[in-house]
Amino acid sequence: MLVYIHIPFCDSKCSYCAFNSYVDKFHLKEKYMQALKKQLQHELLRFQAKKETIETVFIGGGTPSTVNPKLYEDIFALLNPYLVHNAEITSEANPNSATKEWLEGMKKLGVNRISFGTQTFDKEKLKLLNRAHTPQISIDAVHNASQIGFKNISLDLIYATLGDTKELLASDLHVAMSLPINHISAYALMIEEGTAFENRPQMSSEQLSLTKWLFQKIQKYGFKQYEISNFGTYQSLHNLGYWKYKDYIGAGAGAVGKLGLMRFYPQTDIETYIDNPLKIQEEMLSQEDKRLEQIFLGLRSVVGINQDILNTQELKKAEILLDEQKLKLENNILYNEDYLLADEIALFLTS
């Protein structure tokens, strides 16, 4: 199984961010981490009914690097007995708060993969996105992580922003690929409710031709695309676990967990979560929900779709797509090689 841990604290709120995060709740860090431990204890008991071990841990946010490694010690002590050998343990980090000391502290705890929220190496674009770091701070953070001994380092990059050009994106990639990284997550800017960009829809400007060019450019550097937003010479086991529909614990305010056909939703509000981290809403999925999710996820990644889960009508449609070379069939698995068409193909199959 997988474990996702949500850290909702941030130094500043990015203009595009719709995640459950707070810039004014730092005084709650210790209480929050205690609540997190309590929920994890509960979840481990629930999941251990299936005798599952932990293959991957992902600490996301928010900004995990705003929390001192000492506050993570109890969490790792709790998880360690369940971890498989060489488990992938990732922490997200913002370049401005991922100091050498923080990186060293997390590595000592067992974190072996770092994902930096770089977004861009362009000064003006960083200001536009309200990021709290400079290009040089990002560069220094990656080098620090590498020198400390992290072998698996990822960068987030944002595209489809107003003002993006081939020259700007090519420059971002040139800098990124000069660094000791083996993974890039490339996300299109989305305008979402409750963000600073909500009333400025013009800030998002995706052009399909530019997106295709960007994806091809990344792959020319030798970073294989293995999911619609992820590329690398290393493929994140945690990311792939979601696409493979594995079970996962979701710990923290606003996280989501899944066990079999049951989904779990801890409280989103941080104070409510701290008061009762075991107040968790449940949702039962149907077998049809699961099947449709597997189709959509499989087409967005290298996981593909096992033909056995398709009904007669869907199999006929799949034959059409195979004839048109929109899908590929290998060992009873249907693969989509153009992830930008994934949702359209899924809708064609299932409608």
From TrEMBL:
It is found in: Cytoplasm. GO terms for molecular function: 4 iron, 4 sulfur cluster binding; coproporphyrinogen oxidase activity; metal ion binding. GO terms for cellular component: cytoplasm. The keyword Nuclease does not apply. Keywords: 4Fe-4S, Chaperone, Cytoplasm, Heme, Iron, Iron-sulfur, Metal-binding, Oxidoreductase, S-adenosyl-L-methionine. The keyword Metal-binding applies. Transmembrane segments: none annotated. One of its GO terms (biological process) is porphyrin-containing compound biosynthetic process. It holds the Pfam family Radical_SAM. Its main location: cytoplasm. Its cofactor is [4Fe-4S] cluster. PROSITE patterns: RADICAL_SAM (PS51918). InterPro entries: Aldolase_TIM, Coproporphyrinogen-III_oxidase, Elp3/MiaA/NifB-like_rSAM, HemW-like, rSAM, rSAM_sf. CDD domains: Radical_SAM. Residues 1-227 form the Radical SAM core domain. NCBIfam families: hemN_rel. Belongs to the anaerobic coproporphyrinogen-III oxidase family. HemW subfamily. Probably acts as a heme chaperone, transferring heme to an unknown acceptor. Binds one molecule of heme per monomer, possibly covalently. Binds 1 [4Fe-4S] cluster. The cluster is coordinated with 3 cysteines and an exchangeable S-adenosyl-L-methionine. This is Heme chaperone HemW.
